[in-house]
Amino acid sequence: MNTSLNESIAFVWDNFGPMHVDRVDAVAAHFTNRRPVIGIEICGDSDVYDWVPEDGSKFRKIILFPHKKLAAIGTLERARKIILACVQGRASDIFLCHYDHPATFIAASCLRALGRRVYAMGCSKFDDYQRNLWREVGKSLFYLPYCGGISSGRRARDYMRFLGIPAGKIQTEYNTLSVDRIRKLAGVEPAPGGVPFEQRHFTIVARLVPKKNIAMALDAYALYRTSSALPHDLHLCGSGPLEKELRQQAERLGIASYLTFHGFLQTEQVAKILGSTLALLLPSAEEQFGNVVIEAQAMGVPVILSDNCGARDVLVRSGVNGFVIEPDNPRGLAYFMEIIGLDKRLFSRLAAESAAGDRADAGQFAHGVASLVSESTTSS
Hints:
Elements (H helix, E strand, L loop, with lengths): L7 E6 L4 H13 L6 E7 L16 E6 L9 H14 L2 E7 L4 H12 L3 E5 L11 H10 L5 E4 L1 H10 L7 E3 L6 H8 L14 E5 L8 H14 L6 E4 L5 H11 L5 E5 L3 H8 L2 E6 L9 H7 L4 E4 L4 H4 L7 E4 L4 H13 L1 H12 L6 H18 L1
Parallel strand pairs: 1-2, 1-4, 2-3, 4-5, 5-6, 6-7, 8-9, 8-11, 9-10, 11-12, 12-13
């Protein structure tokens, strides 16, 4: 298949949050005047996140079902709309998320049969949870239509390879966003500059659901409060079904007066809070990646995260720009909170390392996409 200048590159997600827009904008900027880029959004509203709908400045976005929730859309209708949008948009290279959804599989198979090149996007890892052999065999069938993929980090790349995509056809980094956008939204200089060390607080940015392991973080914070001579407060950004339970736990532990529950916040508000953060805590028991790590590092914020988090593979080096813990280790989390909270020199060193580089800037995603498209075009 030969690719002409007017054939587009398409990206399909259930919903477009700010980070999705960053990625597609970066791809569009990379292919300026060479290939048009379109974003295909299944629904206008997310079932999971309360994102404000966003459109990119460099690509055209198409919403397939602007007034429906994902659960209300039938499999065949969803697949039909994806295929139609790609065909009408003259898309020759199509990137799809949620490979395991039947509608995505149908769309990918039909588009491949129509001569399009389709690629999987994802950050799942083999160790996200206990796997079943036959279920994994079944999953590998869902990868048959794809001629390549883009993932994040070593574990996600290995899992995609395990499910059937050749190692040479997998690029990284999938989980990226615009570092420059986060810094502009924050409105303050990244650490170690900006807000003084003494005025900073610990921060958790996560949905209040079991897999985020926030109850363990509160246990750790209570231990930290009893051992540190100069403890910092803790801010929680996020909403979810466990909020009442977590508030009650904070009362039992005697730490409620040192906690601030912000509820769900849009990206701009999160960026501002990260601008005054001492360290981000992400102790998840299950976490495919953890995009908030990128936002924190954009603001020079060190990260203490569990080894379950995919972001740990790419972004965090323990003792260099943060620390890695086990998700069932509140004493370890409390210890690292204490040494960061008491040692300004240590914080400054970790912060400087966190703010350095563009390991997860959206430009990395654009580079991975460009490599896949170039390789597939050459081999067609």
